[in-house]
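Tokens help. Our protein:
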Amino acid sequence: MVILKITPIKLEIMKYTLLTAILIFVSCTVKSQTIRYFEFRQPLGFTDTFTSFIVATSDSITISNVLNDITLPIDDRRFISGNVTNGSGGFNNNGTNWYSWHYITNEWQLTVANVEYCDGISSNIGNNPAVIAGDTIYFCPWDSYPYKEVYNTVLSIEDLNSDFQIKIYPNPSTHKIYFEWLSNNPLFIDLYSVTGQLMLTTKLSQANNKIDISQLSKGIYFIHISDNKINRVEKIIVEH
């Protein structure tokens, strides 16, 4: 029998090598996460008009929280709070208007409470985001809420009042989910788990208007629906 003797120096080297490997793995995992974009809306005073802005994150918990809030009534959705900085970040726009500021990716979250000094209107920040909160560069517009996921931030956001009617049934479901909509445009479907993992993607037509969810595990999922002009996110429940 061969007995291996590990000296304290060798043990420290092994620990260092293992720690380095773990750090490299975590770093690669974080870098490989997909950045996803979300539009937030904010009412302008006591009118029916809105301003909007786009934020980015690759944090799975934040993505799950936003997707869940999008399915709730507007009054039940949480507002955004986090660090902002100069420049649009390549994604923050409101239609044809590109902002001179953006929320720093992965440095924002949804919240239900905050201090008053970081409140404000997103369209009034201007070229210096520090105007929101002195030198803290922190922004928490209390009346903002997540509206939808954005899939092409280079394109302008569609008219803020546009929408389309769609019926999804049965929900909850065990095997198949059917879609009904009025136009003849095809629907592009992406189905995500609550952790943001893409589980299914397909194209539907009026002649083929269902998806098979029999292979999915029991639980809650989010469906992104698009006709290349309008986007919506709906929540479905899979039961077996």
Residues 166-238 form a domain with the Immunoglobulin-like fold (CATH 2.60.40.3080). The first strand starts at residue 36 and ends at 43. The two ends are 54 Å apart (CA to CA). Confidence is low (pLDDT under 50) at residues 19-32, 153-162.
